[in-house]
C-alpha cells in the first residue's frame, strides 16, 4: 500500500509538470516560461545580377560592418561606363563650344563678306543710275536698264543675307540651344552615375557586425538580381521568445526585468520584456500535452544583451518573470 501511494503521488506530480506546458506559475507568484533564442537574420544579396567572383567568408565566420562578403563580375558594366563617360565628354564639349560663342575668325570672314556684298550693291546702284539716264536720252536700251535693276536687286539680297549671317555670329547661340545642350550633358552625366552605381552594387558589404550562418551561393555561379548569397546573423541583440498563457499575462509588462537561464551554465542573465503580442495564438507545436494545445497563448519577446556571444539562435532558455 505504501509503494502504491508513492507511485500515485509521483504520477500526479508528473502530470502536473506536463500540463504546465510552456508557462508555469512559481511559488512566489511569478511566471516561468521556456522558449528559444532568436536573432535578426539578414539575407545578403546584390542589387545586380552576374557571375559571382568571390565570397571570402565561410559559414561561422565573424564579419564586421562594411566588410566585403561577396563581389560579382562587372566586365559588361565597365564597358558601358567607358561609353557613358565618352558621351558625357562629348556633350560637355558641345555645351562649352556654344557658351564660348563665335570665333573671331568667323566674325572677320563674315564682316569681309558683308563689305564685299555692300560694295557690289553700291556698284549696281551706280550702273542703274547711269543706264537710266542714258535710256532717257536714247543712248542705252531698255534692256540694259532692266538688267542693271536686276543686278541691284540681287546685290541687295546678298547684302541682307550677309548682314543676317553677321548678326547671328555676333549674337551667338540661342538660349534654347544652350538649354538643350545643358540637358544633354545632364542626361549623359546621369547615365555615368547609373552605371557607376551598378558597379558599386556588385560588391556586397556587411551592414552590421555578425556571423555568416548560411552560405547560399558559390563563386562561378550566375545569379539574378536580388539572389541571396549568404545569411548574416546579428548576435549583438538576440532575444528570447516565450509563450505566456492568458491567466499569467497580467503579471507580464513591457520593460519588466526577466531572469534568463540556459542549459550548461549556472549564471543568471538579465533580460527585458520588449514585446507582448496583442493577439492570442494557439500553443506552439512543441508543447505536446492535449490540455495545453487547447489553450491560447501570447508571444512575448525578452531582449538580451550578448557581449560575450553566449546566446545563439535556436538555443533553449528559461525565463522567470518576477
Q: Please compute the radius of gyration using only Cα atoms.
A: 45 Å
Arithmetic mean of pLDDT: 82
Number of helices: 7
- Percent of sequence in beta strands: 25-35%
Polypeptide structure, described:
Strands 2-9-13-11-10-14 form a 6-stranded antiparallel barrel. It has a 4-stranded antiparallel β-sheet with strand order 6-5-3-8. It has 322 residues and is α+β, with helices and mostly antiparallel strands. Helices cover 44% and strands 28% of the residues. It has helices at 2-19, 75-100, 104-137, 142-171, 175-201, 246-249, 290-293; strands at residues 23-25, 31-45, 50-54, 62-63, 68-72, 203-205, 210-215, 222-223, 228-245, 257-262, 269-276, 281-282, 296-304, 316-321. The relative contact order is 0.21. Strand 1 and strand 2 (31-45) form a beta hairpin. Helix 2 runs antiparallel to helix 5 and helix 3 runs antiparallel to helix 4.
Topology, element by element:
Elements: H1 2-19, E1 23-25, E2 31-45, E3 50-54, E4 62-63, E5 68-72, H2 75-100, H3 104-137, H4 142-171, H5 175-201, E6 203-205, E7 210-215, E8 222-223, E9 228-245, H6 246-249, E10 257-262, E11 269-276, E12 281-282, H7 290-293, E13 296-304, E14 316-321
Helix pairs in contact: 2-5, 3-4
Descriptive terms for the model:
44% helix; 6-stranded antiparallel barrel; disordered N terminus; 4-stranded antiparallel β-sheet; alpha+beta
Short description:
It is built from seven helices and 14 strands. It is an alpha+beta fold and 322 residues long.
Amino acid at each position: 500500500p505504501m509503494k502504491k501511494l508513492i507511485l500515485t503521488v509521483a504520477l500526479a506530480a508528473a502530470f502536473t509538470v506536463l500540463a504546465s506546458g510552456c508557462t508555469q506559475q512559481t511559488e512566489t507568484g511569478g511566471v516561468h516560461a521556456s522558449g528559444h533564442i532568436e536573432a535578426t537574420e539578414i539575407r545578403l544579396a546584390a542589387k545586380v545580377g552576374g557571375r559571382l567572383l568571390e565570397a571570402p567568408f565561410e559559414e561561422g565566420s565573424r564579419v564586421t560592418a562594411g566588410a566585403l562578403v561577396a563581389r560579382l563580375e562587372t566586365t559588361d558594366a565597365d564597358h558601358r561606363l567607358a561609353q557613358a563617360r565618352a558621351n558625357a565628354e562629348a556633350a560637355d564639349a558641345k555645351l562649352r563650344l556654344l557658351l564660348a560663342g563665335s570665333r573671331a575668325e568667323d566674325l572677320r570672314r563674315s564682316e569681309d563678306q558683308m563689305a564685299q556684298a555692300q560694295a557690289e550693291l553700291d556698284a549696281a546702284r551706280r550702273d542703274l543710275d547711269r543706264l537710266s539716264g542714258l535710256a532717257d536720252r536714247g543712248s542705252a536700251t531698255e534692256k540694259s536698264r532692266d538688267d542693271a535693276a536686276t543686278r541691284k536687286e540681287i546685290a541687295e539680297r546678298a547684302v541682307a543675307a550677309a548682314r543676317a549671317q553677321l548678326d547671328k555670329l555676333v549674337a551667338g547661340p540661342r538660349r534654347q540651344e544652350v538649354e538643350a545642350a545643358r540637358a544633354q550633358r545632364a542626361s549623359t552625366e546621369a547615365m555615368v552615375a547609373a552605371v557607376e552605381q551598378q558597379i558599386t552594387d556588385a560588391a556586397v558589404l556587411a551592414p552590421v557586425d555578425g556571423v555568416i550562418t548560411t552560405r547560399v551561393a558559390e563563386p562561378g555561379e550566375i545569379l539574378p538580381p536580388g539572389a541571396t548569397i549568404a545569411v548574416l546573423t546579428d548576435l549583438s541583440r538576440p532575444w528570447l521568445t516565450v509563450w505566456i498563457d492568458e491567466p499569467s499575462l497580467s503579471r507580464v509588462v513591457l520593460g519588466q526585468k526577466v531572469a534568463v537561464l540556459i542549459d550548461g551554465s549556472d549564471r543568471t542573465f538579465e533580460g527585458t520584456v520588449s514585446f507582448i503580442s496583442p493577439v492570442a495564438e494557439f500553443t506552439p507545436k512543441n508543447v505536446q500535452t492535449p490540455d495545453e494545445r487547447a489553450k491560447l497563448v501570447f508571444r512575448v519577446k525578452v531582449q538580451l544583451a550578448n557581449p560575450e556571444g553566449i546566446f545563439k539562435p535556436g538555443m533553449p532558455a528559461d525565463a522567470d518573470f518576477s
